[in-house]
Amino acid sequence: MSTDAETLDAVRKRLLETGDWERIARLLRQRLEESGFDDDLKDLAKEKARKAGAPSLAQLVAEVTPEAERLVKADLREALVSELEAVIEREVERV
């Protein structure tokens, strides 16, 4: 395993241990719902499915994912990154 992967695993583990993973996941889910992401994603998936006929789930996910990632608003991405940075900084200070 590379150092980057090991570091990510260690951060993920610590986030789970502290409960920050769940808290940040709830925050993300709430902000996505507030922004209308769910409805936009459903509409996008329906449109792609209609155009493709009867795609498999894997095909639909592969086609929708890049566009879905672009649907996440920049301010939400920035807020999530800021939250993660704050948690990591707090945890580093404890060590």
TrEMBL record:
**Would I find Transport among this entry's keywords?**
yes
Q: Which GO terms describe its molecular function?
A: transcription coactivator activity
The listed locations are: Nucleus, Nucleoplasm; Cytoplasm, P-body
Q: Which GO terms describe its biological process?
A: chromatin organization; mRNA export from nucleus; protein transport; transcription elongation by RNA polymerase II
Keyword tags = Activator, Chromatin regulator, Cytoplasm, mRNA transport, Nucleus, Protein transport, Transcription, Transcription regulation, Translocation, Transport
Major place of residence? nucleus
Name a GO CC annotation attached to this entry.
nuclear pore
Which InterPro entries does the protein's record reference? TF_ENY2, TF_EnY2_sf
Q: Which Pfam families match?
A: EnY2 (PF10163)
> Which family is annotated?
Belongs to the ENY2 family.
Role summary: Involved in mRNA export coupled transcription activation by association with both the TREX-2 and the SAGA complexes. At the promoters, SAGA is required for recruitment of the basal transcription machinery. It influences RNA polymerase II transcriptional activity through different activities such as TBP interaction and promoter selectivity, interaction with transcription activators, and chromatin modification through histone acetylation and deubiquitination.
Oligomer status and interactors: Component of the nuclear pore complex (NPC)-associated TREX-2 complex (transcription and export complex 2), composed of at least SUS1, SAC3, THP1, SEM1, and CDC31. TREX-2 contains 2 SUS1 chains. The TREX-2 complex interacts with the nucleoporin NUP1. Component of the 1.8 MDa SAGA transcription coactivator-HAT complex. SAGA is built of 5 distinct domains with specialized functions. Within the SAGA complex, SUS1, SGF11, SGF73 and UBP8 form an additional subcomplex of SAGA called the DUB module (deubiquitination module). Interacts directly with THP1, SAC3, SGF11, and with the RNA polymerase II.
Name of the protein: Transcription and mRNA export factor SUS1
Q: What organism is this sequence from?
A: Cutaneotrichosporon oleaginosum
The beginning of the lineage is: Eukaryota, Fungi, Dikarya, Basidiomycota, Agaricomycotina
Q: Which gene encodes it?
A: SUS1
